[in-house]
Structures are given as structure tokens and as C-alpha cells.
């Protein structure tokens, strides 16, 4: 399986990706993870990225693509991978297309997770995260609540609502997604790679993706 997962904040990309990795052992790749990994490993590219991060700046696309090239060339990515939330913009998609042609990688398809806005708002505004940086277990006060006193089941630390998960913040994130990332839908439609899946239940969504793969 070689796929890209697209979807608005709260569409369930992380959960779907995790379930798919359990299905066939595919490696889940997000830009945040690979950049942090490169920085932690002290690679040349990682150190370059660190200078931008330390200054509070975004890591340039050119550097992200170099780090992505290294990651996709690693043995555990040659057969199976899931790109989680990348690319985010048309220039990144165009650069990724060139990179995959260079590495002779052929995508199976691009998954677009479709979720109504009211469902996303409900999912994110009811989410709570463990405040312990070594735990950060995620809960939902409706479907998967923490302990009655609001503490984490795993470590006993308080759970909090993140600043970017208030209704106002979520509305802004969705507007940003619509402007910058949703044009990727049209890009991958033109490439003949896009497959749309309604994502109201992660297990059902994964079953539909697996059926499409087979």
C-alpha cells in the first residue's frame, strides 16, 4: 500500500492511518514526525531544519522535500507507506510528484476523507488531551471520556482542551484548510488518483479503503 491521506482537521487522518498500518505493516509518515526525527538524529538536513524551528520560522518546502526524499528511500518505505497530511499545498504536491518519479515510486491512490463541518466541530470541541507531555493521551468527553474528575486514565494527570480546539480556533483552521489544502482535491482528481471516502466511523472508512486496495 502506497497512499496519501488528505482531510480537514478532525477528519480522522491519524486514526485511519494507525488502523491501516495494522492492516499491512505500512509505515505512517507525517512531515512533523520526519522533521523531528531528523533533528533528533542530528543529520545535516535535521540541523538545517532546526535553525528554522529555533527561530520560529516554517521549514522551507525545499528542505522538507529533501528530508522526505531520505525517508522514502529507507528500506521500510520501499514497499508500503502512508503519507499522513502531506502534501498540504499545490507546490508541495508538484514537488512530491517529481520526487516519486525520481525514486520510481507509484502511488496506489490518494484518500480524501470527507466529513461534514458540524461533525468535525463536535469531534474537536469535545476532545481533551492529557497535560503530561510524556503521555498526551487523547480523550473525547462524549465517546471516550477521561476519569470523572477530568484526569487521565493512564497517568492521572489533568486533561485539558487545547487552545487550537476551541470552536473559534477550529473554524479558523477549517478556513485555512479550505484555502490552502482543499485545492489538492482538484489536483489529484486531474492526476486520476483521488478516491473519496465518507469518514464518520474510522473502522468503516478503513474497510472501504482496504476494499478499494484489493
The largest beta-sheet arranges its strands as 2-3-1-4-8
CATH topology: Rossmann fold
Average the pLDDT over all residues and give the rounded result: 92
Strand content: 15-25%
Largest sheet: 5 strands, parallel
Helix content: 40-55%
What key attributes describe this structure?
single chain, 214 residues, alpha/beta, Rossmann fold, 5-stranded parallel sheet, 3-stranded antiparallel sheet, 8 strands
In brief, what are we looking at here?
By secondary structure, this protein is of the alpha/beta class. The chain is built from 9 helices and 8 strands.
Topology readout:
Blueprint: E1 2-7, H1 13-24, E2 27-29, H2 31-41, H3 44-54, H4 61-72, E3 81-84, H5 90-102, E4 109-114, H6 117-125, E5 127-130, E6 138-140, E7 159-160, H7 167-180, H8 183-190, E8 194-198, H9 202-213
Parallel strand pairs: 1-3, 1-4, 2-3, 4-8
Antiparallel strand pairs: 5-6, 5-7
Helix pairs in contact: 1-9, 2-3, 2-4, 3-4, 6-7
Q: What can you tell me about this protein's structure?
A:
The chain is an alpha/beta fold and 214 residues long. It has one domain: Rossmann fold (3-Layer(aba) Sandwich). Helix content is 48%, strand content 15%. The protein contains nine helices and eight strands. It has a five-stranded parallel beta sheet. A three-stranded antiparallel beta sheet has the order 6-5-7. A hairpin with a 7-residue loop joins strand 5 and strand 6. Helix 1 packs across helix 9 and helix 2 packs across helix 3. It is globular.
